[in-house]
Design goal:
Chain B: It is an enzyme of class 1 (oxidoreductase). Chain B: Keywords: 2Fe-2S, Dioxygenase, Iron, Iron-sulfur, Metal-binding, Oxidoreductase. Chain B: Its EC number is 1.14.12.19. The structure holds 2 protein chains of 2 kinds. By secondary structure, chain A is α/β, with parallel strands linked by helices. Chain A is 20% helix and 33% strand. In chain A, strands 3-2-1-7-20 form a 5-stranded parallel β-sheet, covered by helices on one side. A 5-stranded parallel β-sheet of chain A has the order 9-16-10-11-12, covered by helices on one side. The longest helix of chain A is centred in the middle third of the chain and has 18 residues, at 176-193. Chain A is globular and about 60 Å long. The termini of chain A are far apart. The model of chain A has no long low-confidence stretch (mean pLDDT 95). By secondary structure, chain B is mostly beta strands. Chain B has a single domain (2-98), classed as Rieske Iron-sulfur Protein (3-layer Sandwich). Chain B has no helices and 9 strands. The two termini of chain B are 21 Å apart. The mean pLDDT of chain B is 93. Bound molecules: flavin-adenine dinucleotide and FE2/S2 (inorganic) cluster (FES). Residues 7-13, 32-35, 42-43, 45-46, 77-78, 105-108, 123-124, 150, 238, 241, 270-271, 287-290, 292, 319-321 of chain A line the site of flavin-adenine dinucleotide.
Amino acid sequence: MKSVAIVGASLAGLSAARALRAQGFGGRLTIVGAEPHRPYDRPPLSKEFLAGQMTTTDLALEGDGEDLGAEWRLGVAATGLERGRSLRIALADGSAVEADGVVIATGAVARTLGGDLAGVHTLRTIEDAAALRADLGAARRLVVIGAGFVGAEVACVARTLGLDVTIVEAAPAPFARALGPEMGTALAALHEDHGVRLICGAAVRGLTGEGRVDGVLLDDGRRLDADVVLVGIGARPVVEWLDGSGVLLGDGVVCDAGGATSVPGVVAVGDCAAWFDPALGAHLRVEHWTGAARRPATAAQTLLSGGAAVPDTLAPPYLWSDQYGMRVQFAGHTLPGDEVSVEEGDLASRRFLAVYRREGRMVAVLGVDQPRSFTRWRRRVNEPAGAR
Amino acid sequence: MIPACPLAALPRGEALRIETDPPIAVFHTEDGELYAVDDTCTHQDASLADGWLEGCEVECPLHASRFDLRTGRVDAPPAKLPVRTHQVVVQDETVYVVPSDLPPNLPPGVRTGSA
Ligand SMILES: Cc1cc2nc3c(=O)[nH]c(=O)nc-3n(C[C@H](O)[C@H](O)[C@H](O)COP(=O)(O)OP(=O)(O)OC[C@H]3O[C@@H](n4cnc5c(N)ncnc54)[C@H](O)[C@@H]3O)c2cc1C
Ligand code: FES
């Protein structure tokens, strides 16, 4: 392989570039990124950066003086992928990049509710975070729509800034998709301890206000006053640009357990990719930092070996979240019906470790302020039932 | 030289945090080697003594960067800077640490009491 193009210049794209070089790829490397910025870190956008404790410089993902010998095409989006003698990536400015291998790393974008009222935010980019921070500084009441991790972290920062905060969630329990209803409710208690109002099982009918938002209307007729609204209803993979390319798409780019797509010479990594997870027997799109940072090493191997090295297991998905100074950590994947038990600490103290089991096998673990034991339990996720 | 603990109190595979300023973590590897590094990860405020010890490396409990205990070198982000290493001495069945006089690589927001 003489040349590789990476599309998406964030965590997964940068990690792929590093992995390719570390694995001995000495050819031409082009990195295309729609954002004008060098790769930056997103987790602090809802935490330290939003709270004003971190600056733009602190967000840089590249090391001082790091040089991958790549050509960076920043501020221009890829618009298509064509297959000919080589692979050809069309760019929005009319130019194109040709390469023998392609890494798709276009990540995800925040889902929105539509409309154009001022004071309504989503949070995915550095610009989003700066705008939200400016707005929170002048506001009294924040309504967060959707009880997921990003929304919860923003709620947390807003509470520290002294705002009145309400979280509205359509499902019966918060964080239910990631943690299941039981542990979702347990984690919600942490927010209630800190004075956040949580309304579950309530769908949002619409937003009110003229020019600027002043409230959130719920399906049951209730209206919540709001100066600022954060829409935290998840993210969708950025894959439209691959329509018609022959790359198989599902919930993101469909990949095998080594990151290979349906098109030879094309791999996908990070939030846009749904890798086959042998432990689950299904494709799963994972939207967490560690996967976007670590899986590119496997994908680089797949690309450089022509797909010869598909691993038979994947490290379980891992996420962390910081809420009110508590470290929330979760590894694995839970499905409705899993059995959950608290193995260390207790829910009342808000410091606990819970294990999820399916047919006797441990499939996931959640730690709230238990980094030491979490690190140990995490190793055992997906071990065969009865081991140890 | 700072006394850490009796050698018998630190079995292989275990780690111990000593409350120096900044704190130091002492590791006893499965192979029987002893190493000491600053306990605080260079990325954020996490205790490396809480991490996962494998061979001569410790994996940070929060975001899984791995540090080589012999050199302090970090393998992959999020941590970018090496962790400072210290010398370990065993005398009369007691583990001692000889603190380094190089400056530590503490994460943003974490300071030593004296600095
Ligand atoms: C506010 C926030 C907080 C988070 N907190 C945590 C956390 O605490 N823990 C955790 O585990 N994870 C967290 N995450 C998730 C983590 O940041 C993501 O998993 C990670 O950023 C994924 O990296 P990625 O490179 O796959 O995608 P992204 O970071 O989404 O980057 C994709 C890049 O591709 C570019 N792009 C898109 N389309 C094109 C195109 N057509 N051409 C060229 N470039 C394109 C985009 O502009 C973007 O720069 C958080 C995410 C957010 C937004
Ligand atoms: S705190 Fe150690 S890697 Fe982040």
